[in-house]
Amino acid sequence: MSRLFPAAHMSLFALGLTVSALGASAEMMEVVGIADGDTLNVRQGPNAASADIGDLEEHTMVEVLGRNFAQTWAQIQYGDQLGWVSTAYLASSAPPPAVIGANVVTGIAADDPDGGLVVRGGAGTDFAAIGTLRNETLVHVIQMAEGGTWAMIGFGGNVGWVSTTYLTAANTLPAPTDGVDPHTAPDGGPLPAVFTVTGVAANDKLWVRDAPSATGARLGGLTPNSVVSLNARASEDWGQITLNGQIGYVHMGYLTRAAESGGTTTVNGFPLGLTCRGTEPFWTLTVAQDRTVEYTSLIDGADPITSLTQTTPAIGGGYPYTFGAQRYSGTLDQTACSDGMSDISYSMSLILTRAQSGGGSETLYGCCNVE
């Protein structure tokens, strides 16, 4: 039996559109992938043979009203008429959502009355504010709560909670330059990896800058023999690191792979030979070269020796790392740290979750060095 369709529906099928596609809410997308000096053709119908009715420049935002059945063409509003563009040159304009790992603070208004993204003592606006974060601050999300609307982050040597509305997943790798592989160091070895600062005078520092150039602003400095994780190679001579939660760059001529300088080996860039210490209670955690993990505290004594089972770098590589070892999980960040009890200078901080033998868990905060 033949089926009859109203004329309006026939026109939709002739164009190759589903009715549901036109009924769906419009989506904002960005024109991408256009060669220099070229434009994206807007056509009268969903095929390359259809008449050209206009052009769109790279990065133009368009409102997609629907797609053909094959999803290869998108219908857009072009001036006072409808047109079609190839979906091969469209990308979603929505930022990637917050994820466990590295994220960037975005969307805070310049005149925000709070002065930035409010960090709170718990997952919700009922908890007290403990600080604020500016746009483009790099943060590490440890876990989510309240249906993914709140995120626990490392903050000031402790933890805090922020709304995920203002977090965007961060791709922290530098944009590759001609002839440079971001994952290969000048010595030919893989990145990320741990290096030692060498060739710097005793009274001097290796300066960390905000761009891969000697003209970049100084973000801080690394003293001789400091242990640093190199996330990626940004140019012929400069490498990317994370310092106090910020992306920075150092001249790689002053870095020696840790294993070559009598230092450590790594797992995915996570340093072995690590010693971490904390107070309240006094405790020590070590991750040996053979990946064994030992924990001792003044109150509970020594836990059974276990082994490192998982190390995961931040998105794009490098710090902060998350790791696991049976009853332990933690976040290791490359940030200056003080134990508040001694004059020892630590180059890394640790948030450690330890499962307790009687059930439940405790969260501990400490400082780490490769020893």
TrEMBL record:
Location of the SH3b domain: 27-94
Signal peptide range: 1-26
This protein's UniProt keywords: Signal
Domain of life: Bacteria
Family matches, as Pfam families: SH3_3
InterPro entries documented for this protein: Cell_Wall_Dynamics_Protein, SH3-like_bac-type
Name this protein carries in UniProt: SH3 domain-containing protein
Highest classification ranks of the organism: Bacteria, Pseudomonadati, Pseudomonadota, Alphaproteobacteria, Rhodobacterales
